[in-house]
Amino acid sequence: MSAIEVLERPFDSAEARQAILAILRRLDQIKSASGQGFPLYCLGANQAWKVSAGGSWLGGFWAGLWWLRALHSGRREDQQQALRIAERLRDKLGSATHHRSLIFWYGAGLGKRLLGNPLAAELAAQAADHLACAFDPLMGCIPLGRDLGGGDLGDRSLSVDPLAATLGLFALDANPRLLGLGLQQLQTSLHACGSADGAWSSHAHFQQGQWQVGDKPGNWSRGQAWTLLGLGTGARLYGEPFNVNALVASRYWLRSRGLSTPANRLCEPQGPSDPCSAAMVALALQGLATGTGGEVARQQAGQLLAALVRSADFEDGRFVGHCYRTESDVEQKVESACGSFFLLAALLAWRGDLDPCAI
C-alpha cells in the first residue's frame, strides 16, 4: 500500500472490525506463549515473550485486554479469564507505587465499569482505599513511590502516567471523599506539570515546598498521551477549567505531532517512534469528541487509527508499537499488553462498541 493510500483512504467500520478481531485472536496466542506468567513484551514475529511472574505495572493491561474481549464477545469464559488475571495481581495492593492505579483500574476497575463484575468491583474498591491512604496532604497528591522504578526520589515525585487511572478508581463508587482526593490529584498535576500552551512534563519533583519539572514539557510523546487521558477524565468528572486544559493539550499534540506516528521523544527525531502513544491519543480524542467540535475530533482519531493499522507495526493482530526500555540504555518498539490494550480500546470506541469515556 502506498503512503498516499495510507493517508487518504478513509478509515471505515469494516477495516476497524478486521483489526479488532485480529487483536482478539492474538490474545490466545499470547496466553499460550506466557504460560503461568504475565506477558511483558515481545520484540516481534517469531520472538519469545519476556514473561514476569508478578506482572509489574503491565499486568493490569493484560487483564484489561480480557475485559475488553469479554465486552465484545459476551462470553462468560472471557470474563472469568480477566478475573483470574486480576486476582493474581492482588498482592500488588500494598506496593509502594502510584502505578497501582494502572494495575487495578485497567485490571479490575474496568471489570466493574464495563461488565458490572462484583468481584472485580471489590478488588478495585480495595485498590482505591490503598491509594487514598498513600495520599500526601503536604504534596497534595499521591507520590510516585519507590517501587516499580520510582527509586530514591519516588516519595517526593509525581507522575502523570497514572492520573486517568487514579481518577477512574476514585470515581468508581461516587464516594465524595475519594472524588475530593481525585480533584486534588488533578489540580496538583496541573500545577506541577502543566503549561499554558498544553505541553506537559511527564513528572515533577517536590523540593523545599516547591514543584520542579522533571523533564522538558511536551517532549515525551507517551507522557503527553497520558496527560490527555487524564485531562479528559478530569474534565468529565470535574468540568471547568479542565475542559479547557484538555482542549489546549489536544491542540498542542496536533500542533507538535500531527496525525502520524510520533517520535518517542521530540528531541530525538531519529530515534524510535511510539505508535502506542498515538493509539492512546486516538482514544482520548474520542473521549473529547462528546463536546463541541466532536466530529472533527472523531475524524482525527480515525486518521490516527488508519495510520496505525496500515503500518508495518501492525500485522495479524500483533501491534509492535510500544516504545519500551528493554535494557537500561535501550528503548525499542515491542509488542506489549499496554500497546495492544489502547489500540483495541480505541478501535472498539471508533466502531461504537465501547464508550471511550469509560476507559
From TrEMBL:
One of its GO terms (molecular function) is hydrolase activity. One of its GO terms (biological process) is carbohydrate metabolic process. This is Unsaturated chondroitin disaccharide hydrolase. The keyword Hydrolase applies. It comes from Pseudomonas anguilliseptica. SUPFAM superfamilies: Six-hairpin glycosidases (SSF48208). Keywords: Hydrolase.
